[in-house]
Amino acid sequence: MSKIEDYRAIVGDDEVDELFILAERLKGKSVYNINSTAVGGGVAEILSRMIPLLRDLDVDAHWDVIKGDERFFEITKKMHNALHGQDVDISKNDLDYFQEINQRNSETLDLSGDIMFIHDPQPIGLVKLRENKQNKWIWRCHIDISDPQKRTMDFLREYINRYDAAVLSAPIFARSDLTIRQTLISPSIDPLSEKNKELPQETIDSMADNYALDRERPIVTQVSRFDRLKDPQGVIEVYKKVKAHIDCQLVLAGGGATDDPEGHRILDQIRSIAESDQDIHVIYLPPSSDIEINALQRASTVIIQKSLREGFGLTVAEALWKAKPVIATAVGGIPLQITHKHSGMLTYSISGTAHYLKELLSEPEYALKLGANGKAHIKNNFLITRHIKDYLSLFISLYYKDDIVYL
Amino acid sequence: MTDGFHFHTQYHLVELLGLKAKNPEELLSGINAVPASSIYYHTHRFLQQHHYLSPEPPNDFAFWLMEILHLESLGEEFLSVDTISFCNLEDLRTAFKNILEDYISKHGENSECPPGFEFHFLACKTLVLPLPYIAHNLSEFAEMIRKVSIHSLYFHMFEARMRLGVLDNDFSQWFRGIGEGKLADEVSKLDPYNITLENLRRKITRMVEDRVQN
Fold first, then answer.
1. The whole model's pTM is what?
2. What is the rounded CA–CA span in Å between residue A306 and residue A252?
3. Is B149 close to A330, i.e. CB distance below 8 A?
4. For B13, which of A177, A183, A342 is closest by C-beta distance?
5. Residues of A in contact with B117 (CB under 8 A)
6. Same domain? A182 vs A222
7. Residue pLDDT, tens place only, B20-42
8. What is the least distance, in Å, from the CA of A203 to any CA of chain B?
């Protein structure tokens, strides 16, 4: 596990020193994180990296997990889908059971932290017990709530408004129907993780050889699970338009299809399209293929992220961190990561994507400049150190009302 | 200030206002309604987030008008508002309001963005913290300005104008206080909006070192 001192070599002494200065202002305050799972999933991954780093900074940070049975998690999965806009049926019995499990957890969990940091909808009901407490409560929403099912949002809003603040990941997720303060804190990537750390050239080369990629010709890559919303077919259309002019290869790499019938169907479709063109490489990656993803991104000439809908789209940050020129659709959190023509290309269509891909493959110097700018942008705004700084600032800000606070 | 120059740093915590615009009329309503920290955020965000780029990308309003609504001439008017010449956010807000009111009176309602591409108004809460660096003379100043983060540089060069309400920066104010008027004028003349923050650091360091050596 990385230590906070390890990040000095990446972000500089000044940045790490300032984290310590900021953290000192939290002396005497405890921060209790609560989510629904200790392993698996993005939230657990973030917390497992974040908590040790906060402790390195001498922040009294804790992490606990609520307990629920299969029925509870089926209900919360439906809630998750409903928040994403799906019209799911959540009965009154389901909602009662959701409340009951939250109530049971609130009797066993330690909720005495000065700052209670509650992640996602599963443990949201713990806030109900706060009436008698003087501590601060924050709800951290890691999912897209821009267009939720009304019934579910109405139910959850009753809880959300009992918090002191809600934290969302992108401007588009902001809501006009909340009475509490809403803060924007984007997710981040860890430059020292397997997926993002520097790799020896031999590792990149051997991985490219394993996947039969020709390093002499441009490699265009999209790393995403095989999902309709990631538009892999659209990426193939883009490739075909460009291939007519420039001899390049396409890599579609990702996982997530085995337990998802729709994903499986899409993977089969993509594979059947790819059969007729040996320069289209469809690579199914099992979980924990972080080094493979890292190497494929580093071996690529241009990275595409042609999602039709996206939460935050951290694969864009991962590619930019490797100084790759990226063309991505302007959805979800992607416009925060790419400023069009400065740190990458934002696109809205297949034709636009093909146009920019031709441009970047034909103008390698411009592509290089975009990649360098993109890396600088990620270094300044989307690394875990910035994420920690935002959290520390948020915790401190709970104790002040003014827009400008002199500490 | 003559007791020494105390370096500070600052952090912006971004707040979501839950207010959005899909056309120039709604942009005008929003600009009228939001707190001053929102005007500040949308005109200065790029400077801090893209401080490695020069010239810097346009302010958020101009970017949205040009890239999303494709109102290039209106966007250029927003782009041409000389942020550096304002030391009061209400004056800056009025400048944007005037441009929009003029545009709407001439063109009426003619542009709307597709769903999902609205302009989202944000604001920021700023935390200011002292750093453990206090310069008592120019030599110490030159040594310390190399060590502080770009957030500190940003605070003393950009935020100072809005805070002090004058077209100047903290460094120049201190230089004047210790009788270094010429150096203060040289630093004041730098246009921080058109160079990267690291370049700005290098230039100021060189100016101070030259003064120390001469």
1. 0.89
2. 11
3. no
4. A183
5. 330
6. no
7. 999 999 999 999 999 999 998 99
8. 31
